[in-house]
Amino acid sequence: MKGHVENKSKCAEHCSTYSLSDPTSKCFSDKCDHDHDQSCDDCSTTGVLRIQFMLDAVSSVRKAIPADIQEEITHDLQISTLNLSTWKAHCIRTVHQEQARRDVLLQLKSHQCLIVMDWAMKFLPIKHRETQADFYGKKGIGWHISSVITTSQILGESPATPTDKFDVQTFVHILQLGTQGWFSVAHILTDLLNQLSVRTTVKEVFLKSDNAGCYHCAPLLSFIQHLNSCSSIKVLQYNFSEAQSGKDICDAKTAHCKMHMIRYSGEGHDIVTPQDMRAALHANGGVKGVLASVVSVDRGQSTREKNGVQNSQHQSNE
């Protein structure tokens, strides 16, 4: 299914512009400049038709099947129909949002970067030697991964090309105090932009994350708008990826960091605090392309007022 989806296609099942357009909203719809006069046997409603055929078969032998069994089969088939349609919609959104990431990378200039953000799975404290009693009841340590992608081209202001190489610098923020909410993300984003302003010549950034509530929320978007008015680095665009896609670079860096910390623990060290995690990530030369820092976020300073995004445009990748 994913291999057949295109931005413009004469097959309605393959055309993401047609499939993702909302007919009730002009802001989230677009018109195709072509006819949908083709069909695909593999991606069409063949699965739905087969389920409908089974429903008809159950109805034809209704007398031979107990009522409770018949009701259970009908329910399962109806749920399967809904799940099949939901899966197809997920595939189309995934391909469409991946194209948005590619468009950003192809148009990336020397003073711009793409930042992919994600919360890693909480790190469970480990000791070089610990009893079985110490193994249970651990409290995980939250840490946030931000992978900054820049182009290594020497072409001035011209956009990147598919043959250009990209550099990746990963910033790890380990939570000393705070929760995995939008307020922590706002502070992490502020620190990240400050570090970029000192370490690089980046002036504009593109953000990308999943649809978690700490990212896809009005308070954070409102904060980013405020950040643009007082920061030297401007956020040009924020793209949200579909579940289980779009964050592979963060997952890869998370795996590298975990393996590095496990090796560090195997050398006779305990990793039980955020400071220990930072020391482990920087030990033995550190993880290539990774900078770690410990942050404390006072949740009590967050505003409880209703936030709104002013002068914003309706945009969506779906």
From TrEMBL:
Protein name: Uncharacterized protein
Organism domain of life: Eukaryota
Annotated spans, Disordered: 299-318
Biased composition (Polar residues): 308-318
